[in-house]
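Dear H.,

Thanks for agreeing to be a second pair of eyes. The structure we're designing against is below in token form, covering all 209 positions.
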């Protein structure tokens, strides 16, 4: 029972990670709504995603940039939003965005591997221990990713507000999905650990003769 609960949280984290990675890849409903932060000036806005940025008016997305791995937020919005980007003060962070992009893929790989180990190992104690370790490391990576995204997003939003510019900003769905994946991985690691300590050291389901 404990192993199934741990696997459920592992799967939940995997789903959140996959949708976050798919966000801002195409200018399509739902995908373009998965952004990390939004800046609004009047009725215009610009969304910052993992792969690209989208801009629009009155809450409706009108255009999105071409998706690029490790998208640099300082290029978001083109020349129309150059003044806002300058005030946001995010220049020189291209390596930070690259590190964040790589770490997200590492976390996804660890989460997926943990699930495969559990299923292929038949919920044995050894496989559950390995899954507990993998999900814990993945959770640590997600914590680092969340901190990076939170610091960059809040830095940009606070810089714009502090400059007296008529611009507001808030965090987006992808930020909270990242937090959700992080929490789910910590819970998964915890339940896998309990399974190792108190679960049976055999398969949950055995073939009957």
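And this is the sequence the design step returned. I haven't edited it by hand at all.
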């Amino acid at each position: 029972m404990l192993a199934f609960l741990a696997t459920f949280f592992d799967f939940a984290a995997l789903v959140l990670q996959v949708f976050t990675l798919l966000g801002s890849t195409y200018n399509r409903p739902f995908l373009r709504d998965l952004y990390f932060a939004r800046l609004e000036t009047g009725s215009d806005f610009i969304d910052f995603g993992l792969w690209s940025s989208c801009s629009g008016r009155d809450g409706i997305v009108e255009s999105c940039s071409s998706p690029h791995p490790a998208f640099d937020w300082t290029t978001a919005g083109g020349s129309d939003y150059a003044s806002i980007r300058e005030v946001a003060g995010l220049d020189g962070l291209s390596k930070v965005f690259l590190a964040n992009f790589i770490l997200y893929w590492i976390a996804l790989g660890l989460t997926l591997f943990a699930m495969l180990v559990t299923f292929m190992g038949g919920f044995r104690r050894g496989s559950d221990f390995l899954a507990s370790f993998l999900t814990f490391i993945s959770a640590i990576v997600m914590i680092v990713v969340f901190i990076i995204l939170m610091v960059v997003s809040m830095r940009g939003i606070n810089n714009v507000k502090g400059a007296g510019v008529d611009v507001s900003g808030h965090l987006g769905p992808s930020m909270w999905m990242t937090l959700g994946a992080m929490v789910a991985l910590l819970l998964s690691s915890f339940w896998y650990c309990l399974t190792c300590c108190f679960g049976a050291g055999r398969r949950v389901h055995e073939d009957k003769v």
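Two observations from my side: The helical segments are 2-22, 82-88, 94-120, 125-162, 173-198. The first strand starts at residue 37 and ends at 41.

Warmly,
E.
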